[in-house]
Amino acid sequence: MKILILGADGYLGWPSCLYFSRRDHEVTGVDNYFRRNAATELDCESLIPAPNLLQRANIWKEVTGRSIKVHIGDITNYEFLLSLFREYNPDAVIHYAEQPSAPYSMMSRDKAAFTVQNNLISTLNIMYAVKEVNPECHIIKLGTMGEYGTPNIDIEEGWLEIEHNSRKDRFLFPRQAGSLYHTTKVQDTDMIWFYVRTWGLGVTDLMQGPVYGLSTEETDLDPRLTPSFHYDEIFGTVLNRFIVQAVAGYPLTVFGKGNQTRGFLNLRDTMQCVYLSASRPAARGQLRVFNQLTEQFSVNQLAEKVKIVGDRLGYNVVIKHINNPRVEKEDHYYNVKYTGLFDLGLKPHYLTDEILESFFAVTDTYKDLINRDAFFRGVSWK
Ligand code: USQ
Question: Total structural domains in the chain?
Fold first, then answer.
């Protein structure tokens, strides 16, 4: 398969390049280094300094003999994106190239505007490029579980059948996002669904929960292949932050009551989910939605797990509840359906004590690089 990976320098994008390349697919990775530059601007660099994308591709070649083509550029520039589609005519495109941080989108008007512009125009451009060059190209779009919010009913896998005045129809499951970033994902979904209905494109929308972990089988081949890994308040996800906080002897920052519940998955399982989706594409005219998670936890449950394993390893972990800088429900019902990817063959890596222990062990090797100032910036939703 010829595969175009947009956002190839990121936490998910880079390991995805390796995952597909190792399975004999022709991979082209594209990135504009937004996250690298934003992390420098905000002084919240990745824990592990990552070589740039061109250097990483060279390291991959040196380690495995396999090639990954790399382009540095901005896909909100339509001419640039179109030239890539014309050059490679991919069978599938994976769209990770969005501003991915909820706190970043809430920092200022300018960062909010950037998030809207980047996320919506990049998605729009992909729709147009696929239609113009090859409408058979399967679009795999990273959505987010945060599109659904925390409704007081079960969360179905993308769609909901509604009976109203004794008539029935099937609609996208109601969305009510909790940040501007998550709202742009809702808008993406609406736009994609419009073009699927109108142009008959084939799209898989992956509604992913927060991801944790810092390695995959491929990145384990050489430490220089490790993905970017953020633990700061802007770009770090909750469990990654808790592990680094525990290693640094910094109290785990539980926001508010900590009963907020989300669906989580291991970085290794994101690779499987994306690969399974690409291997069994959506049909033309289909918007296929998968809820991409393997387990549900509350923030308190995650903090407890990190404390139990961390204490056993001698870290003396302290849990601290701090005023929640976000506007979100802290006590709510949460029950998500997520069978689609399991039906395709997903073999989950659940959050066991062994997984946590190995996560602690790798993180500890980078202990001296932890920037404690990055843990809390107090980005407020209000
Ligand atoms: N939280 C804490 N303490 C922290 C950080 C987070 O209690 O130090 C809480 C948050 O308040 C929230 C939950 O943990 O209730 C998850 O927060 P998060 O920062 O791990 O995740 P979020 O901001 O929702 O975004 C992340 C990714 C985003 C992805 C999303 C999936 O950055 O790209 O779309 O996870 S989901 O959360 O399901 O929408």
Answer: 1
- Verify whether ligand 1 is closer than 6 Å to residue 262 (CB atom): yes
**Residue 146 domain boundaries:** 2-374
- Residue 5, beta-bridge partner list: 29, 94
Is there a domain that residue 94 lies in? yes
Q: Is 332 in the pocket of ligand 1 (CB under 6 A)?
A: no
Nearest CA to ligand 1 atom 30: 210
| Residue type for position 41 | E
What are the pLDDT digits (tens) for 125-176? 999 999 999 999 999 999 999 999 999 999 999 999 999 999 999 999 999 9
State the pairing for strand pair 211-212/167-172: unpaired
How close is the Cα of 260 to the center of ligand 1, in Å?
Answer: 10
Q: Is 212 one of the catalytic residues?
A: no
Categorize the per-residue pLDDT at 213 as very low, low, confident or very high, splitting at 50, 70 and 90: very high
Class of residue 5 by CB neighbours under 10 A (exposed 0-12, middle 13-18, buried 19+):
buried
Is the separation of the CB atoms in 5 and 28 below 8 Å?
yes
For residue 36, what is the domain's CATH number? 3.40.50.720
User: Alpha carbon of 261 to those of 89, 312, 335, 348: distances in Å?
Assistant: 41, 25, 9, 19
**Is position 144 annotated as part of the catalytic site?**
yes
380 falls within a domain: no
H or E segment at 268?
helix 267-279
- What does the block give as tokens for 72? 């540095």
Q: Is the CB of 254 under 6 A from ligand 1?
A: yes
The whole model's pTM is what?
A: 0.98
Give just the sign of the alpha carbon dihedral 106, 250, 230, 40: positive
320 counts as catalytic: no
Distance of CA 259 to CAs 198, 255, 300, 375, Å?
A: 41, 9, 6, 20
For the CA of 144, the nearest atom of ligand 1? 34
